[in-house]
Amino acid sequence: MSATAQTLRPPSRTLMFLEGRALHEFGAFVGALPLLSLAPRGDGHPVLVFPGLVASDGSTRPLRSFLRNRGYAVSGWRQGRNLGLREGVQRAMLDLVTELNNVHGRKVSLIGWSLGGLYARQLAKMMPDRVRSVITLGSPFAGTPKSTNAWRVYEMASGRSAEEQTQRFGGPVAEPPPVPTTAIFSRTDGICAWQGCMEKASALSESIEVESSHCGMGHHPAVVYAVADRLAQPEGKWTPFDRTGWRSMVYPDPNR
């Protein structure tokens, strides 16, 4: 891990306090549904959505419902609350990706919110022949666990040290998957240091910046549109997100 990553500090208390705007962001999502209906439609391929720490499939229901209406075969992770990488969780996720790939006969796109995004990245490294793309929402893969305000919660929920990593689960988490990968992040994230949620730009990877809370990222209108845009790309023809035109007013330049 880089020296920069090791020196990242968690977001301030002020930003943590501002996480309450997640409720308003959900209201904005509901109000924006007519406009979001203009987002690209999908091609029917399977999409698997992972929730964040201590959240369940209920937290991702708005996003999954929207994507289902855009034409995707969407699934939650089916394991109740995400209490960390406990016994059996890794095996169940591998089995679910395999199941969705076999049932639909097509590669699976993985979307992960916060901790769920770390799972998505690692699964894509372990089974790139079954995974089409990865999208992470405020996932701190490029920082240390203690660059977040959630590490103590993780330790209590999982019973494991936040610093503990298993190389059996896809290797170093900061390394990008060998499939098209999009990291969506916010500089006003109150839970995870935003620098640790950015992906290095390459022929298969990018970062998209939004102005969102961490807890509202899964239903923020700008995030939902970006997710739909990324999923709609033809398989094997991935190109970076286009920020020109009206999008430049909604999506800041992540490299500014």
Which helices and strands occur, and which strands form pairs?
Blueprint: H1 3-6, H2 13-17, H3 22-36, E1 46-50, H4 61-69, E2 73-75, H5 89-104, E3 108-113, H6 115-126, E4 131-137, H7 151-158, E5 181-186, E6 205-210, H8 221-231, H9 247-250
Parallel strand pairs: 1-2, 1-3, 3-4, 4-5, 5-6
Structural class: alpha/beta
Helical stretch tally:
9
Mean pLDDT: 94
Query: Which overall shape is indicated by the principal axes computed on the Cα atoms?
Result: globular
Beta strand count:
6
Tell me the quaternary state.
Answer: single chain
Output the CATH class name: Alpha Beta
Largest sheet: 6 strands, parallel
Count of structural domains: 1
Radius of gyration from CA coordinates: 17 Å
In what order do the strands lie side by side in the largest sheet?
Answer: 2-1-3-4-5-6
The residue ranges in which pLDDT falls below 50 over 5 or more consecutive positions are none
The CATH superfamily is known as Alpha/Beta hydrolase fold, catalytic domain
Q: What is the third-level CATH name, the topology?
A: Rossmann fold
Helix content estimate: 25-40%
Along the chain, the helix and strand elements come as HHHEHEHEHEHEEHH
CATH architecture: 3-Layer(aba) Sandwich
Overview of the molecule:
There is one protein chain. This protein is α/β, with parallel strands linked by helices and 256 residues long. The protein has a single domain, classed as 3-Layer(aba) Sandwich (Rossmann fold). Helix content is 33%, strand content 13%. Strands 2-1-3-4-5-6 form a six-stranded parallel β-sheet, with helices on both faces. β3, α6 and β4 form a beta-alpha-beta unit.
